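Q: What residues go here?
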């Protein structure tokens, strides 16, 4: 798991390194600028082969300072560089000011940002460098910046190949902490960031603007593990550990019970059950209302079937302590889901166990405070955006609002708040899936950039995800780890299968994905 650092966390690390005397702000700026130029040459080797013309847009803070370094280094490489500045020279921070002076001393000239349209002219520009704003963006951009950025974007569209556009740290107007679009107008081909990626590269509108993201090491120290509180960390989900199955009896790998809806709506639960079985639960049973018994029986083989007449029958089935993970919601219908959830409220001596609540079970929870209050730390809620808004309307509203000042409220903030309120793990689905536990531990699973999986946007894929999590819970994974590993494997199945994927394919692709992991 790698960390994603917010703007404030990055500043704190930078300040600590500078105050300890191990590095100066100027060193960091020089390394940042050099890192950008190297990343550009790696991304587009043709640009390194001979000199070209570049346009660099510099802003009023240290992001602009990085831009001055890039401009100077490109000129030293033999390039013709035109630099456009937004802001007051007298107010540049000290390190940016030094690099501004170095640029002028070397013979560089500076034009106001307003002139960029005329400055682009009709000649070929090979590279546009966006160094207007980075982690210090503190409010939405106004037209003074949006207009020139839009001009560059239009101008770029009129040209077939060049210029390449590179953003330093973040595309300007994108909030580093949330990925909220605060006036970004220039989608970039490449974003070069420093030390670690930021949440905004993966959340919200971030991926629409960043192009590809490269991380450059500028020699800042790692944060010591002991210094972090769980709610101080947003992690990025990587490939899962602990998936090996070691010998033992099938019951050692758990028994998952997936509850189904009635006749005609059993497909979702069957998908979830198949997912739970493929991911390694020792046994998987579908709990089926009488109306659907024949339908389900004719469709399953390795998955078992148990008739569930009503809540009392479910409570009875759950007297079997070997059933150690539950999945409720897919295809159940709200009324049936609500009845079944009633059986889990600890009445009738039902021991709480790890439980995934998805789809109709989430709607049932949203409609009944008593059911919501019965959630416990071994539950995992897996809402998509609509379900999330039904369950946590105030949090969803805050997430939709445009920030007027400071970093915007992010999907990570929202899911943390939701998990704390629910008292269990919440996984909010999407290309940027965010997972949090009630203590504030939070991670982002990104199915974007080189892990893009648009074929997952297909009916039933969420049901398989619920099944994957349930299967891992049955295997003994902790709720947060089960949610993270399932999200990663789910996306990997889609990537491995590729175009044409439908939900049934996801569990069937899992063996190939596990083999590729060496399992
Ligand atoms: N941290 C590190 O380790 C390293 C960081 N480095 C680099 O520093 C960058 C961060 O620099 P930074 O903090 O100076 O912020 P930056 O993005 O340049 O903007 C601040 C300026 O913008 C202004 N401003 C803000 N919003 C505005 C708006 N909407 N419209 C208009 N103005 C607005 C704001 O004004 P104010 O809010 O004070 O009025 C202030 O003047 C970081 O992204 C990276 O590139 C590297 O050099 C290496 C190591
Ligand atoms: N464009 C996309 N890129 C990556 N993952 C996606 C995309 N669209 C949807 N997904 C994933 O597919 C699943 C869809 O779940 P859900 O919305 O519940 O659909 P359904 O109810 O049809 O199963 C989620 O895991 C979500 O993260
Ligand atoms: K920038």
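A:
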């Amino acid at each position: 798991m790698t960390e994603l650092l917010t703007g404030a966390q990055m500043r704190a690390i930078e300040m600590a390194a500078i105050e300890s005397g191990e590095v100066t702000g100027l060193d960091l700026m020089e390394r940042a600028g050099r890192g950008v130029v190297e990343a550009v040459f790696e991304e587009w080797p043709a640009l390194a082969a001979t000199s070209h013309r570049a346009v660099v847009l510099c802003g009023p803070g240290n992001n602009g300072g990085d831009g001055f370094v890039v401009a100077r280094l490109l000129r030293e490489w033999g390039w013709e560089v035109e630099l456009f500045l937004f802001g007051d020279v007298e107010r540049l921070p000290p390190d940016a000011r030094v690099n501004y002076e170095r640029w002028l001393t070397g013979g560089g000239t500076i034009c106001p940002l307003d002139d960029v349209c005329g400055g682009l002219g009709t000649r070929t520009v090979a590279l546009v460098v966006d160094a207007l704003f980075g982690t210090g963006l503190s409010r939405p951009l106004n037209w003074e910046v949006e207009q020139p950025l839009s001009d560059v974007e239009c101008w770029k569209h009129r040209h077939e190949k060049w210029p390449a556009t590179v953003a330093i740290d973040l595309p300007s107007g994108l909030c580093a902490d949330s990925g909220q679009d605060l006036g970004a107008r220039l989608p970039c081909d490449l974003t070069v960031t420093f030390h670690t990626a930021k949440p905004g590269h993966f959340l919200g509108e971030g991926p629409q603007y960043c192009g590809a993201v490269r991380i450059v090491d500028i020699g800042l120290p790692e944060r010591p593990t002991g210094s972090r509180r769980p709610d101080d960390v947003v992690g990025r989900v990587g490939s899962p550990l602990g998936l090996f199955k070691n010998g033992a009896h099938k019951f050692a790998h758990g028994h998952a019970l997936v509850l189904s809806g009635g006749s005609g709506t059993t497909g979702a639960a069957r998908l979830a059950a198949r997912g739970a079985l493929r991911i390694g639960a020792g046994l998987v049973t579908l709990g089926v209302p009488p109306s659907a018994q024949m339908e389900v029986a004719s469709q399953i083989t390795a998955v078992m079937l148990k008739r569930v007449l009503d809540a009392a029958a479910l409570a009875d089935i759950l007297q079997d302590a070997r059933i150690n993970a539950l999945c409720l919601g897919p295809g159940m219908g709200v009324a049936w889901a609500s009845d079944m959830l009633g059986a889990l409220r600890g009445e009738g001596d039902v021991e709480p166990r790890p439980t995934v609540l998805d789809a109709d079970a989430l709607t049932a929870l949203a409609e009944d405070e008593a059911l919501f209050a019965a959630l416990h730390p071994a539950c995992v809620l897996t809402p998509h955006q609509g379900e999330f808004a039904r369950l946590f309307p105030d949090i969803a509203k805050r997430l939709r609002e445009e920030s007027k000042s400071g970093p915007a409220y992010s999907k990570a903030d929202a899911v943390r708040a939701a998990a704390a309120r629910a008292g269990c793990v919440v996984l909010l689905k999407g290309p940027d899936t965010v997972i949090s536990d009630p203590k504030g531990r939070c991670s982002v699973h990104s199915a974007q950039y080189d892990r893009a999986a648009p074929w997952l946007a297909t009916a039933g894929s969420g049901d398989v995800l619920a099944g994957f999590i349930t299967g891992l819970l049955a295997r003994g994974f902790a709720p947060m780890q089960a949610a993270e590993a399932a999200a990663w494997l789910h996306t990997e199945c889609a990537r491995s299968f590729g175009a044409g994927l439908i939900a049934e394919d996801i569990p069937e692709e899992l063996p190939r994905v596990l083999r590729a992991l060496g399992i």
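A: Context that may help when evaluating the design: Residues 384, 429-431, 433, 447, 453-454, 456-457, 459-463, 465, 490 surround adenosine-5'-diphosphate (ligand 2) (CB under 6 Å). The chain has two domains: 2-228, 251-400+408-516.
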